[in-house]
Every structure is written in C-alpha cells, then in structure tokens.
Amino acid sequence: MISMKKLTLGYKKEKILHDVDLKIEKGEFIGIIGPSGAGKSTLLMAIVGGIKVFDGKFDVLGYNLKNIKKKDLSSLRKKIGIIFQGYYLVDRLSVLDNVVSGMLKEIPMARAIIKYYKDKELKKAKEFMEIVDIEKHSLKRCDELSGGQRQRVAIARALAGDPEVILADEPISALDPKSATKVMKVLKKVNKTYGVTVISNLHHLEYAKDYCDRIIGVNNGTVIFDGHSSELTEELVEKIYTTK
Prior knowledge:
Strand 9 and strand 10 (222-227) form a beta hairpin.
C-alpha cells in the first residue's frame, strides 16, 4: 500500500527525514515512536501528501507522491482518514452529526446542512458509533463529552469516509491513562474488524508495544528501528530516545 525508497522529506528548503526505506502492507497496525522533533509527524503527514519530497521514490495507494497532481492528491486524500490530538470536531453539533460529516464525499452539502440523512447513512453512522462505543451519546453535543469520548467520535467520523488508511497523530497524548487505553483498544478493534491500515504517532512506548503489530523508531531524521515490539531491546529504546 505504501512504499518509501531512499526518501528524503522536509519543508521548503529544510530536509527533516533522510534515506527512509519503508514498506507498509494492508491491514498493519503501526506505531511510530521517538523523541519530540525526531520527524514522527513529518513521516506520518507525508503519507497524505502534506510534506515536500526532495529525493527518492514515494508511492501511496498507487499514487506517486513525488509528482502527484492536485486532482490525484484530492482523490488520494479521500482514501485516508486522519485523527488529530485536538479532535477537530464541531462542538455545537451532536455526535451523530459529526460522524455523518465523515460521509460528505457521498452526501450533498445541501442535505448535510439541513441534517437530512438517508436510512443507509444513518445505518452506517450507527455501526461506527457502536464499534467505538459512543452510540449511547449519539444525540449529545460534542462539547458535552470527555476527551476520550471526543477522540472516539473522531475515529467513528474517520471510519465514515470508508478509508483504506487511518493516520492517528498523537491520538492519546492529551488523555488520562484509562481514556488512552480505551482509545487504543478502539483503534485496534477498527484495524481488525475492517482491515484498515492504522499508522499512529505515539509518545508512550508502552502503548506502542501493547497495541501495535509493528514499531518504527525515528530519531535525528532517520529510521533507526523497524520491527516487532519483541525485538525492541533496552539498548534500541535508548538509541531511539537519546537526543543530541
């Protein structure tokens, strides 16, 4: 699904990541770890075409991101769901309305504005609210929810767009341990139930080890570990998190 070969990424004239070689398959659950400023977010957001490609080959879902056209970039982004640390929900709207907003590529804007949803759309929304365990709050405004609940709404909204890949940018860094655990369990459930590839930046190593099939360790602009959590020795962890 995603292939990076000798890839160098960055912003304007600044190169952030160098000589990245990665191949990500359908259905994987991947955690990206490393210290602040190591390039984790750069690596994650590059997948949605938000980062400049300086050198190398970069293919995502059949698109060449080094020379992608605006029309193709728009098509690619429709296949990718993104979950942010800050949720980015419409607080004054209900949980249901926020989840259905993930279907806007299918629902005409006029119908969405007046909140006229067809039965098949409501059925999909109900399914996704149930899988993230938020359906009992479906009619509540999102500003009435806790942080963990809001993040689960964001996951359901991402699912509503029928993504092939979900990118989760620090999805639990603002949550208490109990809420963080529930969000990670939900992401794992989504990954297993729908076969959606999930790629997440994580500050907390233990969550990456507990929930991710594969861990990518980034430091000083390079990938220095790529493997199963069982291969992650104390020496490698120290190498990943040691800053200059």
